[in-house]
Design a protein that fits this description.
single chain, 407 residues, mainly alpha, 4 domains, 26 helices, elongated
C-alpha cells in the first residue's frame, strides 16, 4: 500500500475520530476492534451495537471522515463539527450552519460574521460584500452591515451583547443564534427577546447591578452610541476591554476612563447612585479634573452650605423643598440649592474664604457664621464689608458674649 495513503487512512480512521472528540474512550475502541475482527463487522456498526454511539453519529462521522480525506477541513475542525453534531443531534450541514461556517471553505474570519451567518441574518455573499465595504471605508464589519442596511443599529447592539454573554458563559452559541434570529426577524431589542424567554428556566438576565461602561459613558454624553458600538465590536474581536479600545481610538482620555471605572465600582458597591455617578463623570469631562478633586470640591460645597445655614442665610423650609425635588441623589442638597439660585454666589465666595480660615484654625465656626451674616446684611456691598473685617480683632473677641447676640 502507498505509505502516504496508509498514513492518511490511519489518521482519519472512524474510531480514532470518535475517540479524539471524547465521544467514546480508547478502551471502547479497543474492545470494538476486537469484536469487529472476530465478526468481520465494520467498527462503526460494532460501536452502534454495543451502545456507545447511534446511527446518527455514524453518519456524521463518515461525512466528516470524507471531508477530511478530501482536504476540505482540517482535523481540528473535524473534531469540533463531530462533537457539535453529537451533542446537539444535528447533521453536519446544520453543524456548519450553526457554527457560522460554510462547506466551501469561504468562511467569515470575524466572530460577529460567524454569528450573523449562523443566524441567517446575512448569507456568505452579503457578508463578503460587507467585508469589502468595511475595508473600503475603514470601518468595522457591523458598521458596514448597517451602512448596507443589512441590519439595524439595534440588531448590531444585540449581537454584540450576545457575544459578551457567550464570553461570560451565560448562554451558548446555539442560544445566541436563536436570540439573534428572533431579534432580526421581529426587529426588536435583545432585552425584549430575553424578556419573552424569561420563564423557561434559563439564566438569561442582563446584568443590572453594574452598568456597562459604554452605556455609562453614553449617558454622561462623553461618547456617542456609534463609537460605543464600534469599540464593542473591536473589543469582542480582539478580546480587549471596550474602554481601552475607545482610549486607543482617541475617543476617551485616561482621566475619563479611570474615573468611569472608579464610579462603576462605586455604583456596584452602592456607594453612590447611577444618576449621581453620571453627574460626576460629566464634571470630570467638562472640568478635565480628577474624580478625587471633583468629589473633594463637592464636600467643600457641602461644608460652605452648612456654614451659610449657621449664618441664617438659608431657609430650612426651602432646603426641605429643594431636597424633595432631587431625583435618585443626583445632586447633593448644597449643589441643588446653588443650581436653583437659593445660595447667593457672593455669599458662597465669602463662606469659602471663611471655611479656609477655619481649616487653618484662624477662625471658629461661630465667628465664621457671624462674618457671613454681617456681610450679607449689606446687599450689594458684601465684598466691600468683607474686606473691612479686622481679623486680628475678631480673633480676640469672645464670640459667645460679644457677637452671638448680634446675629
Amino acid at each position: 500500500m502507498d505509505p502516504i495513503k496508509q498514513h492518511r487512512d490511519k489518521l482519519y480512521r472512524l474510531g480514532e475520530l470518535f475517540a479524539d472528540t471524547g465521544i467514546i474512550d480508547h478502551s471502547a475502541i479497543a474492545e470494538g476492534l476486537s469484536i469487529a475482527k472476530r465478526t468481520s463487522f465494520p467498527i462503526g456498526r460494532v460501536l452502534v451495537m454495543t451502545g456507545w454511539i447511534d446511527d446518527h453519529d455514524i453518519n456524521c462521522g463518515v461525512e466528516v471522515q470524507a471531508l477530511l480525506r478530501a482536504g476540505t477541513i482540517d482535523k481540528a475542525l473535524a473534531k469540533d463539527l463531530l462533537r457539535f453534531s453529537h451533542l446537539n443531534k444535528v447533521d453536519i450541514n446544520e453543524a456548519f450552519r450553526l457554527n457560522g461556517l460554510s462547506r466551501n471553505g469561504d468562511n467569515p474570519t470575524s466572530r460577529l460574521g460567524k454569528l450573523m451567518l449562523a443566524a441567517g441574518v446575512a448569507n456568505a455573499e452579503k457578508l463578503a460584500q460587507a467585508n469589502r465595504e468595511a475595508q473600503r471605508h475603514e470601518c468595522t464589519l457591523g458598521g458596514a452591515m448597517i451602512m448596507l442596511r443589512l441590519i439595524t443599529p439595534k440588531t448590531l447592539e444585540g449581537a454584540l451583547n450576545l457575544q459578551i454573554m457567550m464570553r461570560d458563559r451565560k448562554i451558548d452559541f446555539p442560544q445566541a443564534i436563536q436570540f439573534l434570529k428572533e431579534m432580526h426577524e421581529r426587529n426588536v431589542s435583545l432585552r425584549e427577546v430575553i424578556g419573552d424567554h424569561s420563564d423557561n428556566g434559563m439564566l438569561l438576565r442582563l446584568s443590572k447591578g453594574q452598568p456597562r461602561i459604554g452605556e455609562f459613558l453614553i449617558a454622561a454624553g462623553l461618547v456617542s452610541p456609534q463609537v460605543v458600538l464600534m469599540a464593542c465590536e473591536i473589543g469582542n474581536e480582539e478580546d480587549n476591554n471596550i474602554g481601552r479600545v475607545m482610549l486607543s481610538q482617541g475617543h476617551l482620555s485616561e482621566l475619563q476612563l479611570g474615573a468611569a471605572l472608579q464610579l462603576q465600582e462605586m455604583i456596584l458597591n452602592r456607594v453612590i447612585t447611577y444618576r449621581r455617578a453620571v453627574k460626576l463623570i460629566k464634571l470630570v469631562g467638562r472640568l478635565k479634573a480628577p474624580l478625587e478633586q471633583i468629589i473633594s470640591e463637592s464636600k467643600t460645597l457641602d461644608m460652605v452650605f452648612k456654614l451659610l445655614k449657621a449664618a441664617g442665610l438659608v431657609s430650612e423650609k426651602v432646603t426641605r423643598e429643594v431636597a424633595c425635588q432631587i431625583i435618585d441623589f443626583e445632586d447633593t442638597v448644597a449643589e441643588a440649592m446653588l443650581a436653583r439660585g437659593f445660595i447667593h454666589p457672593v455669599h458662597f465666595r465669602i463662606g469659602l474664604v471663611c471655611l479656609e480660615k477655619m481649616h487653618r484654625s484662624e477662625l471658629t465656626e461661630a465667628k465664621a457664621a457671624f462674618v457671613v451674616n454681617y456681610c450679607a446684611r449689606h446687599p450689594g456691598h458684601e465684598l466691600e464689608m468683607f474686606g473691612r473685617v479686622n481679623w486680628a480683632e475678631l480673633k480676640r473677641i469672645d464670640i459667645q458674649s460679644d457677637l452671638l447676640s448680634t446675629l
